[in-house]
């Protein structure tokens, strides 16, 4: 049951971001984000684009490594500002913004899934979430490749079975993730906006 591990990790992060005066340790954040890696094992049985997996894993691992040098997300971003490399490809801050979008995409997906029953719903939900969160930031070639990958996603029931999920366990944990991840991504939006970095790049 992958959904429980994901939901619990984000609930813990939400407690940190919702406690005034607490900063988010980079390691806690990257650990929570790496909970999604297990999804890729199952997605490999379809034609899901491997470049999406590589992109996400590389960025999360980059933050895991950064945690050795900078204890909190806030300090990590400050160091990139000082080094004048916030928007540079591969910078921790740039990777953080991409990861934030991934978390938002997964949230929209969960919201749509919680709202529908059809067996096609995983494809529909992923497509809706991708279009809403990522498509405005991706060029045509990536959008085409992603659309092909999404078309090859397995039906929801098959995927749930591979994860040992029932409709009930999935719904409970998806709802927790929706609530907890909203706190986390709000925190990240504020982190970027409070430092005048913008969130639309
Ligand atoms: C059931 C789960 C289905 C997940 C479907 C995911 C569809 C999204 C696929 C996105 C492919 C993006 C390919 C790479 C794009 C890069 O150019 C950009 C910019 O990178 P930079 O120039 O800053 O290094 N990368 C991104 O926008 C981040 C893409 C992350 C994709 C994560 C997908 C899976 C997330 C799952 C876990 C949360």
TrEMBL record:
UniProt xrefs under InterPro entries: GLTP_sf, Glycolipid_transfer_prot_dom
One GO MF term: ceramide 1-phosphate binding
Keywords per UniProt: Lipid transport, Transport
Recorded GO CC terms: cytosol; membrane
Domain Glycolipid transfer protein: 24-153
Domain of life: Eukaryota
Keyword Nucleotide-binding applies: no
UniProt xrefs under PANTHER family: GENOME ASSEMBLY, CHROMOSOME: A02, GLYCOLIPID TRANSFER PROTEIN-RELATED
Family label: Belongs to the GLTP family.
The protein, known as: Accelerated cell death 11-like
Organism: Raphanus sativus (Radish)
Organism ancestry: Eukaryota, Viridiplantae, Streptophyta, Embryophyta, Tracheophyta
């Amino acid at each position: 049951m992958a959904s429980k591990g994901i939901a619990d990790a984000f609930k813990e992060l939400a407690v940190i971001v919702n406690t005034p005066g607490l900063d988010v340790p980079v390691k806690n954040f990257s650990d929570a984000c790496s909970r999604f890696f297990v999804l890729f094992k199952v997605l490999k049985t379809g034609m899901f684009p491997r470049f999406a997996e590589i992109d996400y894993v590389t960025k999360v691992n980059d933050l895991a490594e950064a945690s050795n040098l900078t204890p909190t997300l806030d300090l990590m971003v400050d160091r990139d500002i000082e080094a004048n490399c916030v928007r540079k490809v591969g910078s921790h801050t740039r990777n953080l913004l991409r990861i934030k979008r991934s978390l938002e995409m997964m949230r929209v997906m969960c919201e749509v899934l919680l709202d529908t029953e059809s067996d096609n719903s995983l494809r529909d939900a992923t497509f809706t979430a991708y279009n809403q969160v990522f498509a405005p930031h991706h060029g045509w070639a990536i959008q085409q490749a992603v659309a092909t990958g999404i078309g090859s996603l397995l039906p929801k029931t098959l995927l749930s079975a591979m994860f040992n999920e029932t409709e009930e366990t999935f719904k409970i944990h998806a709802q927790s993730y929706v609530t907890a991840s909203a706190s986390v991504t709000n925190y990240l939006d504020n982190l970027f906006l409070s430092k005048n970095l913008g969130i639309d790049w």
